[in-house]
Design brief:
Layout: H1 7-17, H2 31-46, H3 52-80, E1 115-116, E2 132-133, H4 156-164, H5 172-184
């Protein structure tokens, strides 16, 4: 609803939880549950034969890993190519694909700077007018400032102002005003 895409960062964290060792997450469970899990682990550790389910799980894990490696070959070739395709799927099931917001990085950083004055009674075109740059919370600006933390909220205006700098406007004021109007209204 808000145009916020930072929830994707949070969705990425969910599968990462499964990479933690059981001991690091043990504090989340009661001591009785931890003791029961320990007993089960000890039972299977000392058993010579593995249950059928263990073999099925191992085989399905290897098959899935092999499928992902096989399907990832064109994706890796695309990433190594000098003419990368962005946001493209390489198989009919759309299991693996490329995501790319930026196919290349620019060598120069252009930026839109908004300025304003506090005193409206002073002639803004005169020498007495004091114009100050309007700072945004998360728009790239002064290189001396530390980058802001945007998760879980995404500062949409700041993000769009950053992309506005990539545009070319023939008339700086009316072209930019038209962009703002078309973006927000």
């Amino acid at each position: 609803v808000s145009g916020n895409l930072s929830f994707l960062n949070w969705l990425t964290l969910i599968p990462a939880i499964f990479c933690f060792d059981d001991k690091s997450l043990a504090w989340l469970f009661s001591s009785a549950t931890r003791h029961r899990v320990f007993e089960i682990q000890q039972h299977w550790l000392h058993t010579k034969t593995k249950p059928l389910g263990w073999y099925i799980r191992q085989a399905s894990s290897l098959a899935l890993a092999g499928l992902l490696v096989y399907l990832s070959v064109p994706v890796v070739q695309n990433l190594l190519s000098s003419r990368q395709l962005m946001n493209t799927s390489f198989d009919c099931f759309r299991i693996v694909n490329t995501y790319g917001a930026f196919g290349s990085v620019t060598k120069e950083r252009t930026e839109v700077v908004l300025e304003g004055t506090y005193n409206s009674s002073v002639d803004q075109s005169g020498e007495r007018a004091q114009w100050l740059e309007i700072e945004f919370k998360c728009k790239p600006g002064s290189v001396g400032h530390r980058p802001c933390l945007i998760s879980p909220y995404h500062y949409r205006l700041d993000w769009l102002m950053w992309f506005a700098a990539f545009q070319v406007y023939s008339d700086q004021t009316s072209g930019f005003a038209a962009w703002i109007y078309s973006t927000f209204f």
